[in-house]
Amino acid sequence: MIKIENLCKSYGKLPVLRNVSIDFALGRVISIIGPNGSGKTTLSKCLLGMVLPDSGDIKLSGKSILNKHAYRSQIGYMPQIGRYPENMKIRQVVSMIRDIRKDVKEIDEELIGLYGLEAMYDKSMGSLSGGTKQKVSAALAFMFNPQILILDEPTAGLDPISAEILKCKILKEKKKGKLILITSHIMSEVEEVADEVMCLMDGQLKFHETIATLKAQAKEERLSRAIAKIMNEED
Ligand SMILES: Nc1ncnc2c1ncn2[C@@H]1O[C@H](COP(=O)(O)OP(=O)(O)OP(=O)(O)O)[C@@H](O)[C@H]1O
């Protein structure tokens, strides 16, 4: 579904993505892990067309997406920190985004319901807690039934029940055959929702394996231990 070929991106003299090549298939949840500053968000932003790579290509169903925009309608994005106009009410943000996506007939309002956002519709975005803002971001990412979801540290800031709701939603959408990319630092969460893990280190792809393979390779039951072992061995 998505094919990334020899992707390179530098900010000034700082190389952030170094020759990254990887394929992602539909119906899979892939967790993007790696230390702070290893290039996870930059990779997601390249997929979203928010950052233009210096070289390399990204293909969606065989076609390059670089400098194109229409493909974006197939991707739902939940940013690490959602930035919204402070004065807008939740209701206005939701209806503004729905207006932009009038083409989509099948609206998924499940998260709006599960998070009880309608009861807060008249609150301004500027007055919301960080976690509530995250819930709005999550609801918007899933709203238009995209084939691909990119979730950047989606449960950071969510209380345990709300995080559980999101994890269930991720698994439900995976079952519908969607491709879901999640950046996360929480290994227990990765283990719960992901099928595969890709690890970036200093902008390079360190590994891309299924969770079962990583555990078998490291002879560890827990993913966090398996990953620590693999990283240490490779140092
Ligand atoms: N717009 C930008 N201008 C300059 N440098 C940037 C920019 N965006 C990111 N960087 C740098 O690129 C590197 C990779 O950042 P990125 O946000 O992709 O990392 P990350 O793996 O998502 O990190 P984290 O786990 O902390 O979220 C960092 O050194 C960061 O400071």
| Bound chemical compounds | adenosine-5'-triphosphate
- The name of the CATH architecture is 3-Layer(aba) Sandwich
Question: Tell me, what's the shape?
Answer: globular
Poorly predicted sequence stretches spanning 5 or more consecutive residues:
none
| Arithmetic mean of pLDDT | 94
Q: Report helical residue fraction.
A: 25-40%
Proportion in β-strands: 25-35%
Tell me the total number of β-strands.
10
Structural class: alpha/beta
Q: Write down the CATH class.
A: Alpha Beta
Tally of separate domains: 1
Short description:
By secondary structure, the protein is α/β, with parallel strands linked by helices. Helices cover 34% and strands 26% of the residues.
